[in-house]
Design brief:
The protein is α+β, with helices and mostly antiparallel strands. About 45% of the residues lie in helices and about 20% in strands.
């Protein structure tokens, strides 16, 4: 029983070091991203916005076969790729601006060389 105070002091030291570690890691829990809360409400994350823009472009018969890439960052949509005419560029930009959640559109569409 002589080692009892030694063991108790070691346990107190371990507890004193472990308690702040648990307190700090408890604050590091992740939170979920913004998702649709109501059935009519749209999610505002970039992946779903890019999917909605791509779906709008594919739904148009004149634009669906064109090699257009869609990238989003915080509501800013970047269209890149090739189109056959300036009219197709304007149509793609108009369709993209009409998608809910789009803050602005960056145009990186180029005319295909003939």
């Amino acid at each position: 029983m002589r080692k009892s105070p030694y063991i108790e002091s070691r346990l107190l030291i371990v507890a004193a070091l472990a308690l702040p570690a648990f307190a700090l890691t408890a604050g590091c829990t992740s939170t979920s991203s913004a998702t649709a809360g109501a059935p009519g409400e749209l999610a505002n994350d970039d992946a779903s916005l890019a999917a909605r823009v791509k779906a709008a472009l594919v739904a148009d018969p004149e634009l669906k076969s064109l090699p257009v890439s869609v990238a989003t960052y915080r509501g800013v949509v970047q269209l890149s790729g090739y189109v056959d005419s300036e009219i197709q560029t304007q149509k793609a930009l108009a369709l993209t601006r009409g998608v809910p959640g789009v803050q602005s559109v960056s145009n990186d569409l180029h005319l295909r060389p003939k």
